């Protein structure tokens, strides 16, 4: 057989999805699996989006514009206007999910061998996308003990080399729920200017900030228009992960023109998804409140329930819908596998995402898992019951 590419060999399995075969096997033996591993909420997709899909009258589903439908780009521009961010529709490219926006950004901004600084733990796919683009991820590690607060900016500065080309952050953060303060964003901005770097800001969870915390979009930072790239998506905001519609936005038009060449090669983002996304952007405030209140209630329930389980430590996430949790186990990945392979309680078990996959520093996150609070309270309660019982029985408990 011809040799598979080195890049392919280096691609990691997603920590979020790699235990799927074990979960399927558990289901096949009749066990209900509470999937807390993946950011797939059980909340209703925005009714406006569903309505738009039902009302499609076209007889041909055609290719669209490579930059995305102009009407959707304009709608996003007015959406951003409402949060005080001034973006012209020409500053916006529609992508196949936020995922493609990240890939396009890396391919457009970094050469093979360049480095990108990322606070870790980070959204695991950043590492996958970077590997696909032959880009090296350089982590700046945050710790569970202080609620994953951003490490001092001096630590970022120490990591800068002649190959450093960009910093990427996710705000509010997946997987930690950390929210960057405006001061922190300004500090990153200063660094970006000092070392002439790109600043990639992933704000797919922007609306989900709890406890009176307010998020200001990084697109409001002044003086770095040529450096800033916004990653956004309709997946989480409208509980519409399968629409596959996202955004790459920047006021740097040389950058966008370059990204557009990649867009042309992949022809266009999904047309039906765009139609539905455009309708979703008109969702009434009640829908947004339904999404927000559901996650807030789930976070409050989950964090309390987790911290009541002996040996567990879970800081309170301030945003998004994930939390990193430290478990009293020898190895969280082994435990997550054991829960699927060996354990069940009342024909139920839990699927967790092993924490180490969200770090690149060897040994980090070994006792941690990421939990997505994407299920209703009853299911979360049952899942916590399973977790508690599983931990009590697990042979590798410490
Ligand atoms: C931080 C972050 N960025 C981007 C994405 C990509 O989302 P999508 O491709 O569904 O828009 C996700 C999905 O979970 C995410 O958590």
Report what the structure shows.
By secondary structure, the chain is α/β, with parallel strands linked by helices. The protein has two domains: 6-44 and 286-393, Aspartate Aminotransferase, domain 1; 47-280, Type I PLP-dependent aspartate aminotransferase-like (Major domain) (Aspartate Aminotransferase, domain 2). Helix content is 38%, strand content 15%. The strands form three sheets. The protein has a seven-stranded mixed sheet with strand order 2-8-7-6-5-3-4, sandwiched between helices. A three-stranded antiparallel sheet has the order 9-12-11. Helix 4 (70-82) packs parallel to helix 10 (271-280). The longest helix is centred in the C-terminal third of the chain and has 24 residues, at 285-308. It is globular. The structure holds pyridoxal-5'-phosphate. The site of pyridoxal-5'-phosphate (PLP) has 13 residues, from helix 5.
SSE diagram, text form:
Layout: H1 6-10, H2 20-28, E1 32-35, H3 47-54, H4 70-82, E2 92-95, H5 97-109, E3 115-120, H6 124-132, E4 136-141, H7 153-158, E5 164-170, H8 182-194, E6 198-202, E7 228-233, E8 246-249, H9 253-265, H10 271-280, H11 285-308, E9 322-326, H12 332-341, E10 348-351, E11 353-354, E12 368-372, H13 377-393
Parallel strand pairs: 1-10, 3-4, 3-5, 5-6, 6-7
Antiparallel strand pairs: 2-8, 7-8, 9-12, 11-12
Helix pairs in contact: 3-10, 4-10, 5-6, 5-9, 11-13
The chain binds pyridoxal-5'-phosphate (PLP).
